[in-house]
Design brief:
There is one protein chain. The protein is mainly alpha-helical and 489 residues long. The chain has a domain of 146 residues. The protein is built from 24 helices and 2 strands. Strands 1-2 form a two-stranded antiparallel ribbon. Helix 2 runs parallel beside helix 24. The protein starts with 10 loop residues before the first helix and ends with a helix. About 1% of the residues have low confidence.
């Protein structure tokens, strides 16, 4: 539909839209919504129709929603890279949620209509080995905008907005969803009547929610997940004159059920004893949490959240130790393989080209211009050229490593025809690789990684002009869009 409007547009916008039309659907939608957001289409296109078209087009995206890594990673950790790649707004949920938010600023009724069509993926049950979990936050960010702007005063008074919240609560199946929803609820202003309705429904949801231990500990550990979010909302309700008792009771049921359920061995097992002969200093008691044998979250509930002086209107019974003994211990988190085939050897050679035999300062340009260094660089380049996917190696692992290794060489080489050809090889790989096999988001992440490497050493932080020119002139519309996306941020 929107392509029919292109002919009447200014030349620059016309060229942009034509290129978007020939790119993968994820880049089409991301590019169009970016143009709307930066007002590049205002006065030129029917923005409401364009946003709605993008909403439906986004349903074809290959990835359903972003992923978030559980715990920290290390350099080149595949799960850490996957997390970064999936947070580029190239998945269905992020794109459709983005469209809803943009629509809310232009047509509130249509935004509510699109929100009703927006499908949240089913909760993905995790195993103890898993290191990534679904990130549904985009959905609830869109819901928050609709709740904030999509209802008239009369509709709010009639309970339409709180009714929408209660309806959403009936569909909650994960603490990840609930934490994201409660974050939005705490951001908005509610009347006492709305608080009363939401607090009761939220307490029921919290008390009845059951998830796997990996998901539970990912949102509970350190109290930075679900618990403080519910606490914050309950305190806001108390300020409005609504008792937080349903939330305190729901949290007690929730914690007792999960702390006593089957647990992952790396989240529930006691800390291993120190090696023989090693003396450990005793840990002083926490001033607020006197029982060091209890999980921190249980101490927090017992010493604070259950007390009438702080949260509910009457004291609740404390959680007891027997309620927190795991039914059994299961597996532990598994890290993905970082290097495949001869990647470690190639990476080691790249480091030698950068550092030489030193460890404190890199080689100077003069040292990187000697015949011996150029000989080693040529050998390294041949190794990269011969680098093929190993058996069982994911396409994205091979692609991200290969582009990174190629650009590492380009960044080290002195100005020469060989350096230009090294860049041309990177661009040919970007343009020629099967983007669907790699994954559109991981391919874009790799292309952006090439641009990031081309910024290194430049005082103004810009991408080296020859790299931008090579990507734009590649003939690949997707590469052209990746370059333009930097301008559309």
């Amino acid at each position: 539909m929107w392509m029919a409007l292109v002919a009447a547009q200014p030349e620059e916008l016309k060229e942009t839209i034509e290129r978007l039309h020939s790119a993968p659907v994820e880049l089409q939608v991301n590019g169009l919504l970016s143009l709307v957001e930066k007002s590049a289409t205002k006065g030129n296109l029917d923005e409401r129709a364009l946003i709605e078209e993008c909403f439906h087009l986004a349903a074809q995206a290959g990835r359903e929603l972003p992923l978030t890594m559980i715990g920290g990673g290390q350099v080149e950790d595949p799960d850490a890279l996957l997390q970064e790649a999936t947070h580029q707004r190239l998945d269905r949920l992020s794109l459709q949620s983005w469209a809803v938010r943009l629509m809310a600023a232009r047509d509130k009724a249509k935004a509510r209509e699109l929100m009703a069509l927006l499908r949240l993926p089913a909760y993905r049950k995790l195993e103890c080995a898993d290191r990534t979990m679904d990130a549904p936050d985009a959905y609830y960010a869109a819901l928050g905008v609709v709740l904030e702007t999509g209802f008239s005063a009369k509709e709010r008074a009639d309970g339409a907005a709180s009714g929408m919240v209660r309806s959403e609560l009936t569909r909650i199946t994960s603490t990840l969803q609930l934490a994201a929803l409660v974050t939005e609820l705490s951001r908005l202003n509610w009347t006492a009547e709305e608080y009363a309705a939401i607090v009761a429904a939220l307490g029921d949801t919290v008390g009845g929610l059951r998830v796997d231990d990996r998901t539970f500990t990912a949102t509970e550990r350190g109290l930075y997940g679900l618990v403080p979010k519910i606490e914050q909302f309950g305190l806001r309700a108390k300020t409005a004159g609504v008792a937080a008792d349903p939330l305190a009771q729901g949290l007690r049921q929730f914690l007792a059920a999960h702390l006593s359920a089957p647990r992952c061995s790396d989240t529930a097992a006691n800390a291993p004893p120190p090696p023989q002969g090693v003396r450990m200093m005793p840990t002083p008691p926490h001033p607020e949490f006197p029982d060091a044998s209890l999980p921190v979250v249980a101490n927090y509930f017992n010493c604070k959240l259950r007390l009438a002086a702080y949260f509910p209107s009457t004291d609740l019974p404390p959680l007891e130790k027997e309620q927190m003994m795991p039914a059994r211990l299961e597996g532990a988190m598994v890290r993905k393989k970082i290097y495949w085939s001869n990647e470690a050897e190639i990476t080691s050679r790249a480091q030698r080209l950068y550092w030489g035999s030193r460890t404190d300062t890199p080689l100077s340009l003069e040292e990187r211009s000697t015949p011996e260094w150029l000989r080693q660089a040529a050998e390294y380049r041949r190794m990269i050229g011969d680098y093929r996917r190993a058996e069982g190696q994911p396409a994205e692992s091979w692609f991200l490593h290969k582009t990174g290794l190629m650009m590492a060489l380009w960044g080290l080489m002195p100005e020469s025809p060989e350096r230009q050809e090294a860049l041309a090889e990177v661009v040919r790989l970007l343009a020629g690789v099967d983007k669907r096999e790699v994954g559109i988001d991981l391919w874009v992440f790799g292309a952006r990684g090439v641009m990031d490497r081309a910024r290194r050493g430049r005082k103004d932080g810009s991408v080296a002009p020859e790299v931008l020119a090579a990507m734009i002139q590649s003939g690949d519309p997707a590469l052209w869009i990746v370059v333009k996306m930097q301008e559309w941020k």
